Amino acid sequence: LADLAITMTTDSDNLENVDHLLLMLPDLHKGLNVNPKFNGQFGESNQETNKLFDVFKVRLVHGWIMDSTYDSLNNISYEDAQDLLTKAADLNRDSTDLQGANETEGEENGKLSHDAHILTKFLITTATQLTQLGLLHLNEIIKEDEFTILFRNDHFSTLFKHDDRLYNLVTDLGFKRHSAIVWESLITIDGSADSFFDGHFKISPLENVSEDITCNDNSIMPEEAEQIDNDRQYAKKLQEEEDKRLATHMHKKEQLNRKKSNAT
Predict the structure, then answer these.
(1) Which terminus of the chain faces fewer neighbouring Cβ atoms within 10 Å, N or C?
(2) pTM (2 decimals)?
(3) How far out from the chain centre does Cα 6 lie?
């Protein structure tokens, strides 16, 4: 990556980003800080990560977008959302904050609780970190035959637009020995209408192959099957932790609603 970056960099203004990349590379295996905003952009804390992709002249994109009718929320980032939910949870722990607050504070607390409720519902219903608005956004901003990096569910994937259609590069280890599967179309949020394609963007003869290819496939080596299982277990653990956190916030919100009902 370092050699490629130096070779690609002809603009002196971009040398600073190359220097930054050289400092980042030794720790790149630990991951990158990505902070998507719910309007299709990225938060300020994402600037360091953006510099890395700028070196290689490739855009980082995401499709986790909230309806613009929530104009007070769709401009915030994921990190901002976590801060807001934490403040709302802290407020809910002590009902006296609501009873003893003046009118202005009461309105602010009410707005905070309302926003937290909307955010919690949004996070739960968009667990795949891709919305219909986000899919439309990606189709609009990505140019024909442009490679981009899609950030979704804490993963980076290669996203390409060809013949006015979006394709994800298939990198799952389970498909390693299926050379006819190179791309997967990105048409729907849940993947229900997506299909597999070969390297020439022709429907793959293996388009109906199950994504659950495991060690039952004799073409997969034992170490590959173990890696597939490890990846699944890790993804499952992350999802369980996220579900538990969101369930906690929902429970606290329900407790607050009960306290309000009892007070009235």
Answers:
(1) C
(2) 0.72
(3) 30
